[in-house]
Amino acid sequence: MKRNTLARGTSIRSARFAQWVVLACLMLSVSESWSAGRLYRFVNGDGRTEISSSIPNDRVKHGYDVLDETGRVLQRIPPQLTEAQIEEKRALEAAHRECEENWRRVSAMYQTEADIDRVKRQNLDAQDTAIANEQANLLVARNQHDELLSQAARMERAGSSLSTMLIQNIERASSQIKVLEGSIRSREAAKQAIEARFEAERDAFRQGECPAPPG
């Protein structure tokens, strides 16, 4: 009984092993058959198109086609990019991302170009109002400064010494004039920046969705 059981076990293991061998051979055969039928089309060192069962290592970077035995293209491998092309591709992708971000922003903020004009006008009006206020304050500061200088001149003509308070008031008025003049210049520059910013907003709105970068 034991011998029969052992015999059956050995027979089963032998059968399974035979099945694995057959399967492995079949897979190897299919693989070899597929590899044997694969061809490569590439441009050789002389600039001529060549079809071969293998491709030289130095031609891989230039790109090639993988063909079946009938000449049908199975896969197209593009040429490897140069450093300059990689940098150009990155720059184009970055520009595309920026374009998409701008489009999402302006499309969420504005419905029409008239909306862009309205918001721009609001920003410019705010700067104009601030400039007008500062110009009025500047006029007052200059008048005060002139009056203080006149007062100092009269005291000097009378032979009197200038008081510490008068000198400090003159310096304070002079400093205030410089601050106001600088602020007005900054606001004028801000108006130019507003014009440029909303012109870019208009361009982004007119362009609409961004075309995908090449490649």
Describe this structure in words.
72% of the residues lie in helices and 8% in strands. Strands 2-1-3-4 form a 4-stranded antiparallel β-sheet, with no helix packed on it. Strand 1 and strand 2 form a beta hairpin. The N terminus is likely disordered. It is an alpha+beta fold and 215 residues long. The longest helix is centred in the middle third of the chain and has 45 residues. Helix 3 crosses helix 5. The chain has 3 domains: 36 residues; 44 residues, no CATH class; 122 residues, Methane Monooxygenase Hydroxylase, Chain G, domain 1, CATH 1.20.58.
Number of helical stretches of at least 4 residues: 5
- Tertiary shape: elongated
Poorly predicted ranges (pLDDT <50, ≥5 residues)? 1-13, 15-35
How are the strands ordered across the major sheet? Answer: 2-1-3-4
Order of helices and strands: HEEHEEHHH
Radius of gyration: 42 Å
CATH architecture of the largest domain: Up-down Bundle
How would a textbook summarize the main sheet? 4 strands, antiparallel
Terminal CA distance reads 74 Å
Beta content comes to: 5-15%
Number-wise, the strands total 4
How many distinct folded domains?
Answer: 3
Chart the SSEs and their pairings.
Elements: H1 2-36, E1 39-43, E2 49-52, H2 57-60, E3 64-67, E4 73-77, H3 83-109, H4 113-157, H5 164-207
Antiparallel strand pairs: 1-2, 1-3, 3-4
Helix pairs in contact: 3-5, 4-5
